[in-house]
Amino acid sequence: MKTRQTALRFLNLARILWALATLGAIVATCADTASRGPVQPLNFFGYFTIQSNLVVVLVGLIAGLMGLAKGASMPRWVVGLRAMASVCMVVVGLIYLTLLAPLGAAGGVPLPWANWVMHILGPLLVLADWLLARDRTSLSYRAVPLLLIYPLLWTGVVLIRGASDGWVPYPFLDPDQGYPVIALYVVSIAVLFAGIAFLVVAYGLRGRHRDVQLEIR
Predict the structure, then answer these.
(1) Hey, which of 93, 109, 184, 206 would disulfide with 115, CB 3.0 to 4.6 Å?
(2) Nearest to 117 by CA among 29, 192, 196, 202
(3) Phi–psi pair at 74, nearest 5 degrees
(4) pLDDT digits (tens, 9 = 90+) for 45-83
């Protein structure tokens, strides 16, 4: 039991440290952007990568601090936030590798180390945390639609902005391509989100990851 509690302590410290590292990457990217001209907050924070990494900062701090304070499994609402962070960051990593990385510097964050933190290492660590850490209760499949609310809202806002003021965060959502092409991308990404959300919840329902509060009481 003592060994397990020590492992949980290190895990939660790691979550806090990674949250702070991610926050540092976001701040550094904002500062780098500001060095080249005025930062438009709606544009800078309109990127799904930035928003998803902000979710990682929030979830890492909440889960880490609560874990250090309680030393037990996370409340279900925190597990839900961790699941959302996992889904979003896996999609961030996959979209970056398949659609954005081929564009070079134009497809990522200008600072190489911050780009690496937010697009590559971040998704890997968040996914590893979900797959390996056992300090959580299980979510039901009813959580899958809930995990899709945020990305669907983000997509809707981006499409409205693209049609109104012409700003889009990623080239594959550019209205100049024509809306049939954009619709194909949106549907494909929506299917990707739904599939990953289902797998994230399904993995959490595996027998060896059932409610670990039974072990800690």
Answers:
(1) 109
(2) 29
(3) -75, 150
(4) 999 999 999 999 999 999 999 988 876 667 889 999 999
Q: Give residue 194's identity as a one-letter amino acid code.
A: A
Yes or no: say if 84 and 55 are a contact pair by the CB < 8 Å rule.
yes
Q: Report how far residue 162's alpha carbon sits from residue 141's, in angstroms, rounded to the nearest whole number.
A: 33
The answer to whether 168 and 175 have CB atoms below 8 angstroms apart is yes
Contact by Cβ (8 Å): 192, 94: yes
pLDDT tens digits along 97-131: 988 888 775 567 888 999 999 999 999 999 999 99
Tokens representing residue 183 in the block:
């619709």
Helix, strand, coil % over all residues of the chain, rounded to 5: 80, 0, 20
DSSP structure class, residue 136: B
Structure tokens at 215: 């072990």
The pTM score is: 0.88
Mean pLDDT of 131-150: 90
- Helical ranges in the chain per DSSP H: 2-34, 41-44, 48-70, 76-95, 112-116, 122-132, 143-164, 179-204, 213-216
What's the first-to-final CA gap in the chain, in angstroms? 11
Q: Which tokens in the block code for residue 92?
A: 């961030």
Give one word for 37, left, alpha or beta, with left for phi > 0 and alpha for psi -120 to 50: left
Amino acid at 140: S
The per-residue DSSP string of 39-64 comes to --HHHHTTSHHHHHHHHHHHHHHHHH
